[in-house]
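Predict the structure of PAC2 family protein.
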Amino acid sequence: MQDNERRMYDLEYPAPEVGADPAGGPTLIVALQGYADAGHAVESSADHLLAALDSRPVASFNNDELIDYRSRRPAVTMDKHRITGMESLNLGIRVVRDTEGRSFLLLSGPEPDLRWEAFTEAVADLADKFGVENTICLYSAPMAVPHTRPLVVSAHSNTPALVNSMFTYDSKVVLPGSASMMIERALHKRGRNVAGFTAHVPHYLAASPYPAATHELLDAVARAAGLALPLRAIENDMSRVAGQLAEQVDDSSEIQQVVHLLENQYDEELERYRSTHPKAMLPGEHEMPTGEEIGEEFERFLAALDSTEAANSSEDVGGPKELPEEADPEDVYPEDLGPDDSDPEDVYPEDLGPDDDEDLDDDR
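Done. Here is the predicted structure for PAC2 family protein.
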């Protein structure tokens, strides 16, 4: 472990507090870029969590030990005659707090090119150090599925509780390895609970950002780890992309035919899966809340209602307030605010997809 600390990573000092639920240690979410990231879902999941939630660095890995810069050249910005910026390849672990103050750990950044075994052992050492209870690795794969059906997130795990009612595969498959999979194997050997969630992205959208895959991955993480994650901004992006896709499909009978064939194949597969897994919660279905969960939600509603009434009462004590001046509509709705009105380009099935130049909204 001393060799790992000296060569592989540096711990933050002073170290941030890594708290967790009193019932157990924190969850570690692994979202490494570069492998099995169709629709940019894994990278976008990490970016969204870091943009929308409070986080602090815990450990930073040494890029010179792990990254082959010739195969992953960072982008450089040149302004006139000067180099003014260079893309940062940050590989590390951060402690993140969800919207209700619960903490979890996030390992994100580029997948290492080198020293996978030393890297995975270092991650396992850090999981031991911080008392990680569960680890969830994120993946996203191109599949022969249509964008018009609920997105599938399949799961695998050594702990049934982490994948309860989720879509799972019963057959044996052989896949190309990844650093995330090696982390799963290393933690399993140490007796840790590990799981992998894979978003099934329509193959014709694999090269473009696909917010639905990001949303479903994070929703699966939230349910499995008991976290409150902000997803509304992603839902807005989902609506925008769905509208773009609908327009493109309507403009092409060839695309409509391909999508229809994929829909039939999808429906047949889910019916087959339902017949062999009658208790499974299929894509698009939602688990009914328990009586205890309904009671807790009602208590939160009443507490919020009491706080609102108390705030309104304190404002009434000072008498009526002066109404603000009427705002100029042009100040509220500037001319350049709004969706792009340009017509989508005609596309073939292989390049069907939304524009990929828009980032996820900041959900702060």
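The radius of gyration is 23 Å.
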